[in-house]
Amino acid sequence: MPRSSSLNWQDRLFRWACLGFALLILGLVAALAVELAWSSRLALRAFGFSFLWTQVWDPVREVFGALPFIYGTLVTSAIALLIAVPFGLGTAIFLAELAPPRISEIIGFLVELLAAIPSVIYGLVGLFVVVPWVRSVASPSVDAVLGWLPVFQGSPYGVGIFTAGLILAVMIVPFVTTVSREVLLTVPRSQREAALALGATHWETIWTTILPYARSGIIGSIFLALARALGETMAVTMVVGNRPEIHPSIFDPGYTMAAVLANEFAEATSNLYLGALIEIGLVLFGITIVVNGVARLLLYRLHDTSAVHV
Amino acid sequence: MSSIVPSVKPPRLAVREAPPADASSVAMAVDRLNAWFAENHVLRDISITFPKQQVTALIGPSGCGKSTLIRCLNRMHEVVAGARVKGEIWVDGMNIYGEGVDPVQVRRKIGMVFQKPNPFPTMSIYDNVAAGLKLNGVRNVSVLDEAVERGLRQAALWEEVKDKLKEPGTGLSGGQQQRLCIARALAVKPEILLLDEPCSALDPIATAKIEELLHELKTQYTVGIVTHNMQQAARVSSFTGFLLLGELIEFGTTDRLFTNPSDPRTEAYITGRFG
């Protein structure tokens, strides 16, 4: 039959085209990794793996170590998650379970709007509002209570790891909230009713039934937020302090991988300096892949028992 | 009479014609119950009694309000947004719609099984059955063990799952899942068990198992069951109520209702002239 053979031909073309696009993505990722590694070969050769745990970043003497940036990126992201996850998840539960539909819609829209604000705006707000607040309120009052712990020692700057984490938290809350809310809304009514019919209160229904049912989706939303936090550049650069140092206190200035790339690329005069910066890019790339891999693994292990997937 | 489908013929039971009126033999008495979904008046002045340790069936065509009625009986109707109820339902000398009555407490005394099996997918078989007790704060392992085994035995599921209690409940077949849900409802020792078309998603063999189970259960529990299947009502129940367009048209012993209906609409329905 000629018609079926022409369909066959179209089918095959379609399949090959799609396969091509899929392979192109794979190729792009691979090319990115290869290019990063190749461009940073000078630094890779000069410092080896010690690049990852050396604290010195001295462009004048051409000694480069990435630890302050790795530390800054991981700690600012961790602070952001610590703040954003309870906040974002709480908001999601409120929007999906407790709020009247109209209010839920309005607040949901506002939360989504947060994600649409350019990050430089967050940076400006951070610089003019959050930094003075941290300097004059947050840092002294935390210092007064918990100052005996090195982590919470006050600092006179205002800019620093904590400030960056706080700004990041606001930036990633929409990711946690919108995705978690959607996932919570997909939990079937029959699950809710099963718990209610057993004599669960509204709170118990949410806690014992709805959240477990939606957990893999919620974890997905958290990793999405984490990926955003790890890579955020502009807003962090404006409030983190930009000092390649590791201080015990979260109120002290620091630096992140994305921030140093943005700040120093233009001034990287020597090939080794440039190579070191690109190697930082390679490390950031690696960390992002590891985080995503861990997320996949976690979701995969939850796969048997959890019912909502992202 | 001659128009009745033969398979509908129920077993001849020596039960009273009218539902028992004295308080000691009535588990639940519904008095002038009205229910709405937003502006939609779905139940009109329903008055019906559920005799103790008997199976009472509610039948009627789709949309007649039978599911709404059974969901009113343990205050599940009101969990839907916009749903309202007016009227009284007396259980143990208490009006469950009385002022200050906590619906959560009502639901702990009156268990419910739904149309589609809905075990908790993140929980094992054991945890599914133990869920209600854990909600009540029971943490003692031997108490839980005992309740889980009792629940599963009463739901006729114990022999099939006793060696895989730690496996997820969703790994069971549909019929087993529904019996798991029955076990879950029974584990908290409710006084009344309500079933909302419990077999509508099951194959005939699984359905037969559940029906057999209902005969066992009524020795200990008062059972209310909604079914769209008249043969099923005839097989499992001692009393039957027929609903149409939100009104209780007729209520009586299953035996009489199916053989000698007093309302022409009941007769029309059970003889298959509409539905």
If you consult CATH, what is the topology of chain A? MetI-like fold
CATH-defined architecture of chain A: Orthogonal Bundle
Structural class designation of chain A: mainly alpha
Give me the strand/helix succession of chain B: EEEHEEHEHHHHEHEHEEHH
Overall CATH architecture of the domain at 6-11 and 26-116 and 191-270 in chain B:
3-Layer(aba) Sandwich
Largest interface: A-B, 24 and 29 residues
Give the N-to-C terminal Cα separation of chain A: 42 Å
Task: Assign a percent range to the helix content of chain B.
Answer: 25-40%
Major beta sheet summary of chain B: 6 strands, mixed
Number-wise, the strands of chain A total 2
Largest sheet of chain A: 2 strands, antiparallel
| Helix content estimate of chain A | over 70%
Please tell me the overall pLDDT of chain A: 90
**Residue runs with pLDDT of under 50 for 5 or more positions of chain B:** 1-20
- Radius of gyration of chain B, Cα only, in angstroms? 18 Å
Shape type of chain A: flat
Spell out the CATH superfamily of the domain at 6-11 and 26-116 and 191-270 in chain B.
P-loop containing nucleotide triphosphate hydrolases
Number of helices of chain B: 10
Fill in the CATH topology of the domain at 6-11 and 26-116 and 191-270 in chain B.
Rossmann fold
- This entry's quaternary arrangement is heterodimer
Structure, described:
The complex is a heterodimer of chains A (310) and B (275). Chain A has 12 helices and 2 strands. Chain A is mainly alpha-helical and 310 residues long. Chain A has a single domain, classed as MetI-like fold (Orthogonal Bundle). In chain A, strand 1 and strand 2 (63-64) form a beta hairpin. With 275 residues, chain B is α/β, with parallel strands linked by helices. Chain B has a domain at 6-11 and 26-116 and 191-270: P-loop containing nucleotide triphosphate hydrolases (Rossmann fold), CATH 3.40.50.300. Helix content of chain B is 33%, strand content 24%. Chain B has a 6-stranded mixed beta sheet with strand order 6-7-8-3-9-10, sandwiched between helices. In chain B, a hairpin with a 2-residue loop joins strand 1 (26-37) and strand 2 (40-51). The chains are: A mainly alpha (310), B alpha/beta (275). The interface between A and B is medium-sized, with 24 and 29 residues.
